[in-house]
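Re: FE2/S2 (inorganic) cluster structure - here you go.
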Amino acid sequence: MATAAWPGKKDRSLIGKSITRQDGPVKATGRAKYSYDLNPPGLLWAKPATSPHAHAKLVSIDTKKAEALPGVKGVWKDTDLIGEEVRYIGQIIACVAAESEEIATEAVALVEAKYEVLEHQVIDNDPKFATGRASEQEVGKVADGFAEADVTIEGDYGVPVITHCCMEPHGQVTEVRGGELYAWPSTQNVSRWADRLNDSVGIDRAKMHVDCQYMGGGFGSKFTYDKWGVIGTLLAKQTGRPVKLLLDRDLELAIAGNRPSGYTHIKLGVKNDGAITAFEGSVVGTGGGGGYRLRAFPYVFEPKNRKTTMKGIRTNRGGQRAWRAPSHPQTCLLTFSALEDAAAKIGMDAAAFYKKNLNLTARPDVYAEELDIAMKMIGYAEKAHLRTKLDAGPVKRGLGIAMHTWGGLGHGSECRVTINPDGSVKAEIGTQDLGTGARTVVSIIAAETLGLPLEAIDTRIGNNAYPASGGSGGSTTTGGISVSTRMAATDALNDLLGHAATKLGVAADKLEAKGGRIREMGNAAKSMSWADACKMLRTGSISKTGQNNRTEAQKAGLIDAGVGGVQIADVSVDTETGVVTLNEMAAVQDCGLIVNMKTCESQVFGGVIMGITSALFEEALYDPTTGRMLNADMEFYRIAGIKDVGTIKVHMMTGEEYEKRGIIGIGEPPVIAPAAAISNAVANAIGVRVPYLPLTPERVLNVLA
Amino acid sequence: MTADEKTNMQGKGLSRRGFLKGVGAGGAVATIATGCSTIDRDGVVSLTPRGPENTPITLNINGRRRKLEVEPRVTLLDALRNRLDLTGAKKVCDRGTCGSCTVLVDGEPAYSCSMLAVEAAGRKITTVEGLGSPEQMNAVQEAFVENDAQQCGFCTPGFVVACTSVLDKNPDATLEEAQAGCGGNLCRCGTYVGMNQALMDAAKSLKGGA
Amino acid sequence: MKSFEYATPRTVDEAVEQLAEQWGETEVLAGGTDLVTCLKQGLTAPKRVVSLKAVKDLKGISSTKGALTIGAMTTMGELAGNAGVQKHFPSLATAVKNIASPQLLSTGTVGGDLCQRPRCWYYRNGYGLLAQQDGKSLVTAGDNRYHAIFGNAGKAKFVSASSLGPPLIALGATIKTSSREIAADKFFQTPKSENERETVLNPNEIITAISVPLSGAENATYEIRHRQGLDWPYVTASVAKTNGGTKVVLGHVAPTPWIVAGNDAAQGAKPLSGNGYKVKMVKTAVKRALAAASNGASN
Ligand SMILES: Cc1cc2nc3c(=O)[nH]c(=O)nc-3n(C[C@H](O)[C@H](O)[C@H](O)COP(=O)(O)OP(=O)(O)OC[C@H]3O[C@@H](n4cnc5c(N)ncnc54)[C@H](O)[C@@H]3O)c2cc1C
Ligand code: FES
Ligand code: FES
């Protein structure tokens, strides 16, 4: 009888190994069809018309001229919005569908709308624009904490609004046939993409077919159908033709992904020996027009006496969206900047300072171990210096440290595994592969469970016809899909073992599936091939659905939540040009039982690189007068290139201690700490803090001036 | 576009004569009919201006001659993706910044989003599809897959074309030189570590190494 | 993008004939790496685009007595890869190499680089070349971190985008057009109205070649850039040292390449609200370019 518990190390043939992702070849040869690539016959191109004003009352929309343009086949306008306020530039007010992309683009320019322009506000970092009541939280008594302190430091730190800039923009292809919707969205949530869409389009939820085989990046911003999903569906209904509606790059950056900013003033009390006694931080920031709150502040280190206040700034910018590890990168930067400034103030080595205070973290032992490893990886002992001992010459080098934490408990998920009489195996699950390797994870778990090679599993994902799985966010996918797949495969296998038992004359609970055979545990002599066992299924296939019940699975040690990580950055700063160069980055990460070492490490590398990008380059820049995002392109909204990221070293924590926790997700954690580590490294290099990200040459020169 | 619309579009007829007055360029421009003999076989040069309506061109793509009709304003990228269903080259920035649309034009890497299709007529175009297939990948594709130099994969075709180009020209490239071949490409998922390894592995295998 | 007709003249004369006398009626197309973007951004909506691809004799680099002549349609990649250029004009080779995108280098041309439109984000976002709104400069009131610190007293606050302009001026090059020869230092101008462009070319005039004298000047370019791939420099300095003296020309600090007059390169800088940091960069870039010129190497 096979059980769901993960096999021990010596019994694993696939789990934990470095396995090449299965859809690599289709992608690398350009054959993978993303939503943007679909050209069904009769396709129409849709382009949205948007508000040119950051804040205005929409008086009227006139689409007559657009409709008159030859080749235009459908027009939609947001009549509900007439008489209402538009709140940011790029807000969609209408949309045209035409025979070609060129015609659609031309037609959009012919949409005429009248506005009464209102005052706008796009500044995201100035407390004087904060509105509403501050949320305040106090644990312990900060006043007592500061009284205990030998030294108090105060500082300002900040992280701007950044945008997801998914390579494949938001949007979808939609077609309505016979009252049924066929949608191919670029989404991280195939099973639930269409939830509640019926409210706006009048098509039964059960008649919505959603498919997404490949998608070009989401990072937290692609969980639902959005306004363009509604419009695309309505236009498809109206025209009876498939409609492609994906955002152009400027809209993608301005309206489809804003990570809230965070600007803080922090006061920290420490004793001369480094012990932190009190923390007080007030934060302002913006989530566009919506509410604002950063979670997990202060970050990782939670002094006994701490107080935080938070206040939102309403801006006429596109709405906020979840961005890898919501809140954490921001609060990590804010907190760890203050921590290293405090260490510098009392003349203490940063690593020693953190060690001194590890008791204020949730997992002191893990962090201690990870910190030591990271220090070795970066050569800390040889390279570290205090902020008071700067390198001679214009180019100065420095190290900086940051730590992070994340949950990552597998999400609810269902998977169906079918074993057929011909020996073939199918795994079907309504999950999606964002590039994380989810498809391959399903294959690995099913194959491992059934004792088969990876290729033996026909894995089907990315369609809401399959058993529902969760949205891929919050590092919950690998845990979720691994458990549901494991459950289904185990169940199906046990059924098969029942058949084999009779034939082999061994009780089913003494049988196992290994190396393509069903055999008596530990006795290869008593066995039969997988194919032969399956042939016995004359009555038909075995089809089992497994579930990830989060609570039970966590109790059973299949999945868990809560990881730590330590990262150290080594940078050089040219003090005559202000240019920050990343030399090296060491990242140490735990995430429980690793399913696929190769794609897991890729996630960490990718997370670190995305973190580096945010540290050095990213900021959504808005013009105060016009309210327009000035860098809604990939030219001045910079993304790190291959030469900008230095050498990155990753160490994954493995071994019994970690593996016994079960599977924990990895998508978010590694992206959190880089910015803080790099900011700290720059401060260590040049002796002063560059308070606000990104660490651009102008910012560096300005603090040195 | 349906035949109906085609006539419609032509019917709306930017008056060529009126325009010529505006241009004031003298008698060099005569009215032409699309597809008339003043255009050479592939639509590379013509004695008189063409368009703005559809004009016939032949694109030499991955060794195949593909005839199509495009308006002069259509970019090579849009012609490939929207008219020929060659969707390996991706549209991301559409401004010549990110490299996702990279193809080879006469063996040199180029941003197909920033080149008009009519400009590409008569030139040798290689897209990612022409470099290899899932069953038979080229050395760079092989190395990308093996080293996990891709996540979402949306930037990957562009990188593959750029890397193939730099390594074909210089299989002895150092890592730094090979990276320079990627200076016009961007990846949002952060796959550069795998890519560095892929570049080195591909170079090795192109030189006949293991 | 509005539709347009497309012309493929085969001679310079034919090309000129196809061009209108008004800016914006027609546009010249070289590599297209900037023009196609401008068309998409609606910065220009010509009725006709005149491609230079089939025009004879615009391509290639030849050395004549005392000068290197570069055809306008020579790609930047060909320029950077040319042995003569590398040997005599490291400042040019460096400026091109730093553009760092093989795709741009293989398509973008020398003529196109000189005539490309500014990258001012107000201009590119549709607020006009001079970015005026209600009689006021959006640049002055807004985010001008990448804008001009010199020559910005008029309405134009953008910076000249061309990487080739500064070294060509420092090297004393001459721009040959369909109708005349223009000294490189007279080629760029600061537009005073939306109807003017950033060079002295007429709408129906094309660059045919650039001639760079082999003066034996020690020369180098130093660029301050943030990203190490395709990007824009913050500030560049090109220098050429001859017995007659040293010429220093700055890039990305003014609406034209900026020719330094005295000893202090930063003299006369008038930063806007957000670009004072460029003053320090100018000093650094000039210092490093001069050092590189003496060492025979630039960055
Ligand atoms: C992200 C990014 C970064 C860049 N960084 C840099 C950089 O650092 N430095 C730099 O210099 N450039 C940079 N570029 C710009 C690039 O170099 C130019 O796009 C290119 O040089 C233009 O050449 P082209 O042949 O493609 O010109 P086209 O796009 O064909 O033409 C550009 C302009 O020049 C005119 N023109 C072209 N040829 C002639 C001629 N012979 N006579 C008269 N007019 C002509 C055209 O009408 C048009 O207005 C960058 C571009 C991007 C997208
Ligand atoms: S899509 Fe062409 S360079 Fe980005
Ligand atoms: S793999 Fe996703 S953008 Fe490069």
